[in-house]
Fold these 4 entries.
Entry 1:
Amino acid sequence: MAQEELFLTCFFVLQLLLLHLYLRILKIILMKLSLRLRFLIILIVLTVCGKSQSTFSASNPFYSQSKLPYEAPAFDKIKDADFKPAFEEGMKVHLAEIEKIADNPAPATFENTLVAMEKSGRLLDRTNNVFNVLTGANTNPALQSLQEEEAPRLAAHQDAIYLNTKLFKRIEKVYNDRNPLKPDAEAKRLVEYIYQQFVLAGAKLTDASKTRLKKLNEQEASLSAKFTNQLLAAAKAGALIVDNTGELAGLSQGVLDAAARDAKAKKLDNKWLIPLQNTTQQPVLQSLSDRAIRQKLMSASLNRAEKSDSNDTRNTIAQIAKIRAEKAKLMGFASFAEWKLQDQMAKTPEAVQKFFAQLVPAATAKAKAEAADIQALIDKQNGGFKLQPWDWDYYAEQVRKEKYDLDDSQIKPYFELYRVLEDGVFYAANQLYGVTFKQRHDLPVYQNDVRVYEVFDKDNSTLGLFYCDYFKRDNKSGGAWMSNMVGQTKLLGTMPVIYNVCNFTKPAEGQPALISFSDVTTMFHEFGHGLHGLFASQKYPTLSGTSVARDFVEFPSQFNEHWALDPKVLYHYAVHYKTGEPIPQTLVDKIKKAGTFNQGYRLTEALAASALDMQWHTLSPTDSLKNVDEFERASLKKTGLDLPEVPPRYRSTYFLHIWGNGYAAGYYAYQWTEMLDDDAYSWFEEHGGLTRANGQRFRDMILSRGNTIEYGKMFRDFRGHDPNIIPMQQSRGLIAR
Ligand SMILES: [Zn+2]
């Protein structure tokens, strides 16, 4: 004992001496260094110390549930530095919870496995939900770099759960014993869904196949990243450079100034640069009057990634398609699409092909009729040429101006943002579903433009919170979206906290926010997602609200767009902001008529892109693929979408959705959900339109159901039959009503 103490004392003295020596050496070194280097070393030491201090503690706002009503995020307390420790701790705790479930010595039951899984990962969820709000709508460099750092870690975290063999064995046991759960339909659906997700992620593969799948996943991920980078570089290099401003006749001064500025930034003095947008058609094509320059720009767009240089994506996409086909084969499916459609509403590639077949003839016929109209205009102007894709938008714009001219400055005074929200969007929800809204000023927001409303049900009971953030900001992503800050679940006793984000132009101080009709539609759309979230009435978080298949999730949102033009709703909100006059009928007629303009072209180009997506993803690994262009040509011909005047919205070589953004075998979902929403709306038309009773039925059978019923059955139960294509064809103006 004494010897041990002596040893420890000696050891301690020795350590002190050594420390003293280190410090002296360090001081000598520091004195010899330049001032800048000394500063750098001190900075590094401080950073390291700072990092080690950022441990997770009760002072972190994510440590426990928010004390605010509805567990709303305490934006006034959350700091950027809180996220990293919360993510680290959140993943650690979640993994420990999952391991505990997997290692449970008791036989697997629904309660000790599925319900326990549903309850796990709360800290990680809380952190992630708020992180997504801020990185999407109010980001900064610190959050962006943390986002890059955490993305692969979160992906690996998911893998660690889905490929946990012991956990899967328990889920499989519960799945095999699931029939006694039958009276509780939601529980049964949960077991079936979770089991399916594990199987689709590869849980049933042999160890050797799992290793192979992981390897293929890695290869695909790196090829996908390569594609994204190649495309970015190709688009940048493909920008059109013009020497003579005369060639740019037709462009507005604003666009010309931007083109000059962009050229100057590349040290191209006295030149103009037109950057390439993602899509085949380029926005300036509708204004450029010089036909040769239009052709040049279109060709730059179509061939951006096919220049046989390092940015040529043809080889990359051929490899990705092959890897995906091989992955599908490993999983026991005939093609990647067959694998990926398992948990979607469409279920099979054949169902998607059948859907296309119902739409393609009418869409292409309308496009051909539009082409004939445009050709007539070209001939009338003695153009002396045959319409080509680079002419389409230029002449279509002239037809539009002549036939349907919608002057935004005439329309906008009738659409004041918050009047549209409260007297339009909220009013429609009140008339259909009986809900009411009250603005709250006591809850913290992440930015001053954000508004919060509390939502009440028909009996005045509370439903949830709705945040809206409508104005464009530099630190906000483009587009519009909805999501949850807090998800609804009876199991955990939480109610929905929903938000909508848009990018409308912010008015000058003290001026009203006047928006376009397309912005109005966007508000109804995003709020449709919001209602799907607010009416969620699920026990289990996995099945709650908008957690549904991609080819179903846009159904409630697109459906809600219909009410923007319903007379009962429209005349309630579309009132002149100064005079209080309701919107004149002539303007309403113009808005309605413009809705079907050029839809043959728009739908055909989208269907062509969808068809390419499906053709690429129904390949088998043994299909030989020598020539990407040849494959694309053959695919379009085979599907009847090879109209010379209407190229696909994205050609294979720059189709970012499917090679880089997770929409592989899923681009069709945009058109599919349109079929659902138009058909559902036609049910309303057949049954007296906007009434409380009709709204209640839609709420009960669709909006409140989350993913608790098979999608096809859910739709059939509401509509009385499988989705019908006719209403979509009518609303696109492909056939007469
Ligand atoms: Zn949407």
Entry 2:
Amino acid sequence: MTKMRRQSLVAYGQPLCETILDCPSPKGSEVLVRIERCGVCHSDLHLQDGYFSLGADKKLDVSAGRALPFTLGHEIAGIIESSGDDATGAVVGRRVAVYPWIGCGQCAACLAGEETLCSNHRHLGIAADGGFATHVLVPHQRYLLDYAPLSADFAGPLMCSGLTAYAALKRHTKRPERGPVLLVGLGGVGMMGLAIARALFREAPIVADIDADKRQTALNAGAAQACDPSDPQARKAVIAATSGGLLAVCDFVGSDKSLQFSTGVLARGGKVVVTGLLGGNFSIAAAMFGIKAMTIEGTLTGTLAEARELLDLARAGKIAPIPTRNRSLGEAQAALDDLRAGRVVGRTVLCA
Ligand SMILES: [Zn+2]
Ligand SMILES: [Zn+2]
């Protein structure tokens, strides 16, 4: 029997450990995917901690309902290795990206195509074993998406960082484009956001990050302007440069500081879409909602339909790949450590 190697969470707040077990045999509609690549996402850090910071020492516990050892990782690209009797369309050898945001399939959210919002979900690497491994079991072939001619290094991260950025940016496309979009935070999601914004919008985006290297990387990748939100003059400078502020901001950080900045540079009628989960506690004068006619909206990754739209855009060559560093599966913990320390530009992708 084929063995499956994994880098698993064996205790919260502790380093990942290698676990080895027999490969599962897919039954019914299930498909076994041999993993080629899995991206390392900032949310993996929170899952390893077992909580999200809510500010002022408050924590959102996310350790419940997950049997340990557990395998993180949700930005998976691989090759179909075998399938259950009912998965007749899952051709062995096909290269696929794995849509990880898999719901129960029965609740109102799932029936509306919003499996990402399912409260009884089986999201891979979150509630079901994920991609820091040599193999992953996927419940149905409909979650397997062709990605040729893209690379596996690019296709895997499209399923979380790409999809999160795409879903956030799409929430700015419903109104006429007046001025550029501002992208706050240039981690993996922010860099994907920059590449995708170039495909969706006429004007090149403005970007903001406290890290000078990340700002320079973004300018090299086509950002119109880059600012340092920790500079006390930055807010005024952005408002001046955009003749009164921005209508469209994506906050890929999700901290008190980033939201102060994102809402502070809005023009009247503007909107901030928040995807980041960094933590903290944000407050704003309630009257500003009316006075500025502003919107703050949150998103949680994207739907299967949006994943298909995004792959279509990428496969048509409209989205430039982001900087990527490959590491071996055994270096999963080192990759998480580097991400936590802010030492990663672009995406780290593990090679199984
Ligand atoms: Zn993620
Ligand atoms: Zn559901």
Entry 3:
Amino acid sequence: MPMPRLLPALVATIACGLAHAATTAGTPEFVGTDAPFAANAIYFVLTDRFVNGDPSNDHRDQGGAHRTFDIPVPGAPPGESANIGYLGGDFKGILDNAGYIRGMGFGAVWITPIVDNPDEAFTGGDPVTWGSKFTDRGKTGYHGYWGVNFYKLDEHLPSRNLDFRQFTAAMHRAGLKVVQDIVANHGSPAFSMPVRQPQYGQIFDKDGKLIADQQNLPPYRLDPVRNPLHRFYHAYDDLVQLSNNDDQNPAVLDYFVGAYEQWADQGADAFRIDTISHMPTAFWKQFAARIRAKHPGFFMFGEAFDYSPDNIGQYTWPRNGGISLLDFPLRGRIADVFEHPDSDYAKLLDRLYLTNGPYANPYELVTFYDNHDMARLNASDNGFIDANNFLFTARGIPAIYYGSETGFERGKAEHQGNRNYYGQQRIDAASNSPIYRQLKRIAQLREHTPALQRGLMLPIHFAGDQAAFYRVYQQGDMRQIALVLLNKGDVAAQFDIGDYLQAGRWTPAFGGNAIDVPADGQLRTSVAAHDVQVWLLHAALTRPDLVAELTRLMQERGHPER
Ligand SMILES: [Ca+2]
Ligand SMILES: [Ca+2]
Ligand SMILES: [Ca+2]
């Protein structure tokens, strides 16, 4: 941190003066974020593992001696399985279930990378065994993160009359935005193969011309000075055997800006950026500026797989490109709290960073409890229900990994079933799961409640099995105060809320009788075990201590360097 400690206070003082000047004219604005994308909750699909909507694009005979379809991970215990081949999921499978996803209360679907990946299983690296990490031998590009031509769709994804442009258009008609997962740090595994394999370590341009080739050489043997095909890469390694794109080479930036502009032009609504911390912020600043020059306000969030907010906050700052992030630091605490019934809600509090935190805007972070790169949440059904009740009411943009709505493969890491095929049958039976039913209830509430999407968050009680906080959205004609009460205990809990409670008629969002709260009164209610209540008041803010606290939250909302 290059800034002296004094400066944040100075900046806050200036901001305070500005906010004051702006608000004297009318009703003050209390908003967590104005980013339109934050209105959506995200459903994250590993496309190949969701639903096979079109068997004609499965390419089951692909790869010859290194075939690519249906490759079980060896060493599975009885009754368990994992797979490192393609299993057939495609655009059609997602589109066929757009109603299922939309109906659950999601407004966006994040899909794994769509670009062309190698047509053989990889023969280098370390062998994939049950539960192993950072092993790739025998694996295919079913996950999409091993791009070889970033301008071309992988052949497993589209169907007749369903290319990417047609897919995004159909998703939009179904009320869903498409978040495209993008990679710029690396291509495919590029060395350690016993015999060189086609496409691995190579990159092709828009016209199919070879523009980079690691030639199965270890990075230190690359010769970018003399060999033009080596110039795309650093001559040192980064992640396992993956090629390491040279962020200093302007041709690399041009290539990726061109590719991802193409997909944005074809209807991608937002980007999730893979391995963002493996490229310097200078690269991302230029990348974001060029994408947004054509697509103003284009929302992007990065994956910096790091639980330290000190390390990752910088990516969100405007001077570094203003790219939001997956909220890893909060994710760590969410897993701690909801995997362990005896945990304390207070553990979440200090990872919210609601004032003077490390992020440009904590309300734009994408919040989650698991994904494809870590063990799925290892919680009971009640643990999932409690986690979802928190995720969909607290600050941030919730992202749910496919299958979590039924507790699919809970606790399982990558080569233990984390990425298993979900399939139409499980989707059709999802409503039998109590996790699904409660998720749908709270996600639909968020969908209809601006304060829960983008409102300021004011915590009032985080202790033991209970949490209580306000979410406040006051802008233009919209004036909404939500009081959220969470109980993760096994018995009903009494809440007596008086702190900052504005007088008025509070209505329970899930139905029931309103409560008329007098001035300096209390809202008293009992929240059932593993349940949530949200009370709403639609009125301008008048209670002085509440207004003062929200004004402070507003002024100190982001990092001083924002
Ligand atoms: Ca298919
Ligand atoms: Ca391919
Ligand atoms: Ca790198």
Entry 4:
Amino acid sequence: MNDAPVTLAMTGASGARYAVRLLQVLNDAKVPVSLIISDVGWRLLNEEMEIRDEAGLRKQTGDWSQVKMFADNDRGATPASGSAPSRGMVVCPCSMGTLASIAQGTTRSLIERAADVCLKERRKLILVPRETPYSSIHLENMLRLTNAGAVVLPASPGFYHRPESIDELIDFVVGRVVAQLGVDVRIGPRWSAGE
Ligand SMILES: Cc1cc2nc3c(=O)[nH]c(=O)nc-3n(C[C@H](O)[C@H](O)[C@H](O)COP(=O)(O)O)c2cc1C
């Protein structure tokens, strides 16, 4: 099952750099990726990183031989199918809008449908929200998703390893995501006794 792809969805929350680094790490680890980017996800890639299209994204994320892109409006694409092999899904960054839709099971886009399939098939679903502060609606949606089996992994890097760069902060969060996926790569700080 480890040859099965990870579905990586990028949505319209701030933090495009987390998503770009995550794709780069998965590509370096030769993990097959089914990639879906929402319209506002593209807008954030452009506004935060000047990545305007697939060519721009390829330039910053290494070897794409294992990446397949799907349009978010194609609700019949492979990640929409429960019978297609899958290693799970990450939504990074995850907007509160997409998070709410997944919590309600609306499946009005490929991203929402693929996440819904992960929940019904009891596969790993990791959501990386970025919003502050949270409303009670946001919090209730996160609790609902956690109770349904998703992992809510906020983009909240720690500081105990004394990061000196934005890259280190990003790797803190991306390291947690890949650890949840069970991908064996060493990025971000690791706990070790006596050091
Ligand atoms: C520049 C910009 C920044 C945004 N930042 C966030 C954010 O950090 N968190 C969030 O939940 N929504 C944010 N939004 C709002 C979402 O993009 C909006 O709810 C959108 O409908 C989400 O669509 P999507 O989930 O399909 O990408 C932002 C929107 C824009 C245009």
